[in-house]
Design brief:
This protein is mainly α. The protein has a single domain, classed as Methane Monooxygenase Hydroxylase, Chain G, domain 1, CATH 1.20.58.1000. It has 3 helices and no strands. It starts with 5 loop residues before the first helix and ends with a helix.
């Protein structure tokens, strides 16, 4: 199981970008910027967080889940994925 893969690096880059956006959003609010502009930036940061999460989930399925399936313990890992997807759909 390689949790320091290229996918992890992509997720980290995306999260760092989101962090920068969130810092910018905070400054926008402190500067009393137009509400719609702030809201658009919040939506953009939220999209980046979702993108990072999908990257992490893809990596999890390609490593942890694949390994668990090979060892006969795949059901538990599949159940974990289903719980996460259920939260996405709420």
């Amino acid at each position: 199981m390689d949790h320091c893969s290229c996918e992890s690096k992509k997720a980290l880059d995306t999260l760092r970008t989101a962090r920068g956006q969130i810092d910018g959003i905070i400054r926008m609010i402190e500067d009393d910027r137009y509400c719609i502009d702030v809201s658009k930036q919040i939506l953009s940061a939220s999209a980046l967080l979702k993108k990072a999460n999908i990257t992490i989930l893809r990596q999890h399925m390609n490593t942890c889940v694949a390994e668990a399936v090979q060892t006969g313990a795949g059901r538990e890992k599949v159940d974990e994925i289903v719980l996460i997807l259920d939260k996405y759909m709420e």
